[in-house]
């Protein structure tokens, strides 16, 4: 197979984080700095730890991905970003209370040097937060121009060769794609007229695409999931991916649902509830933001189980998702699932799962992988929707000619086969 022509990963890679002072972002940044000093292990990161099979089984070739795929080196990453609060990243990480002070102090000076730029923020889209470090401008178009200027100055100040941007901010209130999201001229006009269906995340995304900066949508916001920005990303030769990091409860759904389907076991109901006490939990306590998250979480089961093909097994599923803000838990989330299934002759059975996880600890390695893979995609000339990165998202972006793939194992095969194609190796169908 012909190897893809990839630009060398030389020079510095800028990583701009929206919500740079949040729990996920500070855990991601601090963890990456700790790992590159050799003071921690990047558990959960495919780019840093996973292997990839190359060739036939009898060849027994299982190198680490980072040894055969030309990824950026961690030592070349420069962090920056925006936040609605002014604290530097060290102070913000202390406030988030995810990593210990002992760990944070290993990279204290580097974290203190990362000071957020003023954010694009509108409380109409995130009701429960009250930003104090925010940009002001007469129109959303002007805000977009301000973000572009931030990107340009960040690039120049740090002498960067490439830049990627990742959204680690809060979940915005639910928006449906409309006429203004269909074409680029309509979208541009909506920016200029302060249309209510242009959320802050869209302002960041459009500014990034104008600057040729790959955009990663880590929340379930509409953002780049519109025809206008799908097409603009292709025009700008820039990758986009999203949406909504797949970390805890939904990750388990993408594992358990394929198990039920492959064994042809029936499903009557799936009740999911979460308790979470960090800023994300507070934001999702608002019905508008919860609606956005709920849509992302609910789409998984139907997509995998295909009830239209198996009506006797999955044609009448009751699926309920709840998220409860519970401050004492802070970042330590608990996801509890009650799953009513049935087997031979319709006899009932149950699965119960209680996942006591750490939200930001699970999300941080995803952020690292997505930044490195997005940079790889851009250097390899890949643009538009990066469906091969669906592995990392609850609600993978897809155009109208395709359906999303939610099965974690199929997603993982697609991710590795894409990497094989990029480096000129044969894809694997496991029939050998």
Report what the structure shows.
With 432 residues, this protein is an alpha/beta fold. It folds into two domains: 13-245 and 361-422, NAD(P)-binding Rossmann-like Domain (Rossmann fold), CATH 3.40.50.720; 249-358, Dihydrodipicolinate Reductase, domain 2 (2-Layer Sandwich), CATH 3.30.360.10. It is 38% helix and 17% strand. The chain has 16 helices and eleven strands. The strands form two sheets. The chain has a seven-stranded parallel β-sheet with strand order 3-2-1-4-5-6-11, sandwiched between helices. The chain has a four-stranded mixed β-sheet with strand order 8-7-9-10. Strand 5 (214-217), helix 10 (227-235) and strand 6 (239-242) form a beta-alpha-beta unit. Helix 7 crosses helix 8 (184-192) and helix 8 (184-192) crosses helix 10 (227-235). The protein is globular and about 65 Å long.
Report helical residue fraction.
Answer: 25-40%
Instruction: Sketch the major β-sheet.
Output: 7 strands, parallel
Round the Cα radius of gyration to an integer and report it: 21 Å
- Adjacency order of strands in the biggest sheet: 3-2-1-4-5-6-11
